[in-house]
Amino acid sequence: MEYRRLGASGLKVPVLSFGAGTFGGTGPLFGAWGNTDASEARRLIDICLEAGVNLFDTADVYSNGASEEVLGQAIKGRRDAVLISTKTSLPMGDGPNDAGSSRSRLIRAVEDALRRLGTDYIDLLQLHAFDAGTAVEEVLSTLGDLVSSGKLRYTGVSNFSGWQLMKSLAAAERHGYPRYVANQVYYSLVGRDYEWELMPLGLDQGVGALVWSPLGWGRLTGRLRRGQELPKGSRLHQTADFGPPVDEALLFDVVDVLDAIAAETGRAVPQIAINWLLQRPTVSSVIIGARDETQLRQNLGAVGWSLTPDQIARLDAASTVTAPYPYFPYRRQEGFARLNPPAV
Asked: d(Cα 84, Cα 82) in Å, to the nearest integer?
């Protein structure tokens, strides 16, 4: 397993990490993902650790805390062998202080997560969404206190826009608060919006990407084919509306190239899609999920080899779309590109 620094921090993380969204799954979204209990979770974590994957990602909102609880049970007795990443800020109730990133909410959310996880510290806490109603200074000072107390090691964000992240980084620099080192982002061959602003920001500011849904919300599994109906057992029947939209024409253009490269390499389609991501700038780790051992072992096969430059170029060409203003001139016009060379 390859390990990379998480952004500009000193923390080294595996290039593949495990997403625990299937642990304790309940409700229309997480229940459709899976319902892994503690015994099954221990087996999946055993396989991950054997392969060198020691970073496990969850969130308080995943099945209303059940994911954290199952993860905590599954790592019991081997806390020092793993890195735990969790997230907070999305609503955990209907009360006025049950959502957001206020000082009150963050302190309570961290205490609740520590209890569910059965640990006294969290390696990486990420804000699951930007809270426009709370001053960034309040958020950052609270996180700084939690880091100083030893309850958090590092902090990051998820689903922030470029200006929201940059505003936070500037305030941290100005006041001496801990800087965000991670940005958990949606990024895939059928969803490359991350490249337009957040990737250049990450390069400039030393923020590492943790990639969620690397298979395009389940569309790059190798089961979807042009002109064929959605397979009966696909989770997309229940979950498609929860995830990022995907242009169908683009999807099948990408799938055609993935199929061709799969035939050339003998690799599975998901392995190729994940391996492509591992070649991209700023990517510290790609979060993989699995409902069972077979699925997990297949995803772990995305490392230990590399796509050729020609194969990467073909995937790039099939998945490229015209960026919106103001980004498209920087990709298409020589004068803009000369002043601002692209990140990729």
From this structure: 6
The predicted-structure confidence for 100-120, as pLDDT tens digits, reads as follows 999 999 999 999 999 999 999
Residue 17 has pLDDT above 70, yes or no: yes
The residue ranking higher by pLDDT, 225 or 82, is: 82
Q: One-letter amino acid identity for 139?
A: V
Say what the pTM is.
Answer: 0.92
With cut-offs at 50, 70 and 90, classify the pLDDT of residue 328. Answer: confident
Is pLDDT of 237 > 50? Answer: no
Locus of tokens 């999305």: 90
Question: Is 18 a member of any domain?
Answer: yes
For every residue of 176-240, DSSP letters joined together read: TPPPP-EEEEE-BTTB-GGGTTHHHHHHHHT-EEEEE-TTTTTT-SS---TTSPPPTT-THHHHG
Quote the CA–CA distance of 168 and 171 in Å, as a whole number: 5
Contact 155, 178 (CB under 8 A): yes
Whether 86 contacts 113, CB under 8 Å: yes
DSSP structural state of residue 93 = S
Model confidence at 234: pLDDT above 70? no
Is the residue at 344 inside a domain? no
Closest to 49 (Cα-Cα) out of 83, 10, 21 = 83
Task: Tell me the C-alpha distance between 18 and 290, whole Å.
Answer: 8
CA-wise closest residue to 127 among 163, 97, 168: 168
Domain assignment of residue 50, given as a range: 3-339
Catalytic sites, residue numbers: 62
Instruction: Decide if 302 contacts 270 (C-beta within 8 A).
Output: yes
Residue 129 in domain: yes
Contacts of 252 (CB under 8 A, 6+ apart): 224, 225, 226
Q: What CATH number is given to the structural domain containing 313?
A: 3.20.20.100
